[in-house]
Design goal:
- The protein has a single domain, classed as Alpha-lytic protease prodomain-like (Up-down Bundle), CATH 1.20.1510.
- 77% of the residues lie in helices and 0% in strands.
- The protein contains 7 helices and no strands.
């Protein structure tokens, strides 16, 4: 008696049977692909949220001793970046392509708002100069930002590619660029230490410009994916 060939490794078959309902088969023991994608998306979002939340908390504690506008710009941006996990998580929970597209747009909007906020603080500090203090701590805060954003970017980018999610990819590119923004905080500490305190708000403005560039890149990523 011949037997049907065994399924290839990693391949699950639907086992149909006729139970009297028009001969339709039913699948048993299989998890719907959309549910698996939803779970994986939520996992990616939560991991990156935890990384960026920790980064933001550490930077906030260090900012209290430095009073650096460059660090404040980076801190605001990282906090906003962490909060983008909320619409992304909801979209994956709903397993809705439309909700995911809207989450991508929410990410872009959050980046833009953080740029505007950082710019306002930088301009205010140019008008009312105040040299940052504890420059070693300031440099350390920048390094924390670089490390946290680099790890979060890898988590989001790899997850976005696996799940074919434009919103996650945009957020991953966002965090990737944020690592370079945090380099600006380290640069601020170095330049101020060399005797140019005015460099701190100027670097804050430079960071604002970089965030606006990130906004545009994220917008083109989300819109480009939506067009397909």
């Amino acid at each position: 008696m011949s037997h049907p060939p065994a399924p290839a490794h990693g391949v699950a078959y639907h086992h149909g049977h006729d139970d009297g309902h028009d001969g339709h088969g039913h699948a048993h023991g299989l998890v719907d692909a959309s549910i698996k994608r939803s779970r994986e998306g939520i996992r990616v979002v939560l991991v990156s949220l935890a990384i960026l939340a920790l980064t933001t908390v550490v930077q906030a504690l260090l900012y209290a001793t430095t009073d650096s506008v460059a660090l404040l710009a980076d801190l605001i941006h990282n906090a906003g970046d962490a909060l983008t996990a909320v619409p992304l998580g909801i979209a994956f929970l709903l397993r809705s392509a439309r909700a995911e597209r809207w989450a991508g747009l929410a990410v872009v909007f959050a980046i833009f708002i953080s740029a505007v906020t950082a710019g306002v603080f930088a301009v205010e500090r140019l008008i009312n100069p105040l040299a940052p203090e504890h420059l070693l701590v300031l440099g350390l805060a920048g390094v924390v930002g670089v490390i946290g954003n680099t790890i979060a970017a890898r988590v989001r980018m790899s997850g976005g590619r696996r799940l074919n999610s434009a919103a996650l990819i945009a957020d991953g590119k966002h965090a990737q660029s944020d690592a370079m923004v945090s380099v600006g905080v380290v640069l601020s500490a170095v330049v101020v230490a060399l005797g140019a305190p005015i460099a701190d708000p100027m670097i804050g403005l430079l960071i604002t410009g970089l965030i606006l560039r990130i906004t545009w890149q994220s917008w083109t990523t989300v819109r480009g994916k939506e067009a397909h």
